[in-house]
Write a structure and sequence with these properties.
The chain is α/β, with parallel strands linked by helices and about 240 residues long. Helix content is about 45%, strand content about 15%.
Length: about 240
């Protein structure tokens, strides 16, 4: 039975991915940083629903390089092997270029780019075959600067995805998914998403379903590597009015 490591897997999109993969028969390592209670609750829930599978959670601060460099090895020690790495965890804080402090910039680069780099490198080193899926953002097609550090980190992760796909082939495939209007921020409700969705071609929030279907497509299409699937309702195409 194959095992997946999902960063930021205890809440929101990460939780949806975890529940989806568990339903497909995967064992899971659910990474968290500060969300210990939600992570442990999710593990217990999955153990109840899928008693024949293995689930565990591991704490790692993705800003701390030393901790990140232990995560893949810790996951393997717990599970024996890993066949899928999903780089889902990220931070998302506003600030245009002029208002981006060095600290804000560093945090985004460390969590959204450097940590995935280390995990991808270690996955390729310690795992003989499998898949890496990086969660990006449809913002990578835009030069808007209202979330400058975030956008730069995700643009960088896309280029890393392509480079890794070339180097790690043929035994490890590396692909990416770019969601758009998916879930409301913790301080907003669904009406906020519908307001944003008025500006995209499909005129409705995507939710997590297109992300989950994109994961299935990537895993099932064994000749796919170095590719980016936009699960964003056409947002990457630009506004149509």
């Amino acid at each position: 039975m194959d095992t997946a490591l999902i960063t930021g897997g205890s809440k929101r999109v990460g939780k949806a991915i975890a529940e989806h993969l568990a339903g497909k028969g995967w064992n899971l390592v659910i990474h968290y940083n500060t969300s210990e209670e939600p992570a442990e609750r999710l593990v217990k829930q999955l153990q109840t629903h899928y008693p024949g599978q293995k689930f565990t959670c591991l704490q790692t601060d993705l800003i701390n390089q030393n901790e990140v460099e232990r995560l893949i090895r810790n996951a393997i020690a717990n599970m024996g092997s890993i066949q899928l790495l999903v780089n889902n965890a990220s931070i998302f804080k506003p600030g245009n270029l002029r208002k981006t402090s060095t600290g804000l910039f560093d945090d985004h680069i460390l969590v959204n780019f450097k940590a995935p780099f280390i995990l991808m490198r270690d996955f390729a080193t310690f795992c003989t075959n499998g898949n890496i899926i990086n969660l990006l953002d449809t913002r990578i097609t835009s030069n808007k600067t209202n979330f400058a550090a975030y956008s730069l980190s995700k643009k960088s992760l896309w280029h890393l995805t392509q480079m890794a796909a070339l180097e790690f082939a043929p035994n490890i495939r590396v692909n990416a998914i770019a969601p758009g209007v998916t879930l409301p921020p913790v301080d907003k409700d669904e009406s906020y998403l519908w307001e944003l969705a008025e500006k995209i071609p499909m005129k409705e929030p995507t939710g997590t379903d297109p992300i989950l279907k994109s994961i299935d497509f990537i895993l099932e299409n064994t000749h796919l590597t170095g590719q980016l699937l936009f699960a964003d309702g056409g947002e990457n195409l630009g506004q149509n009015r």
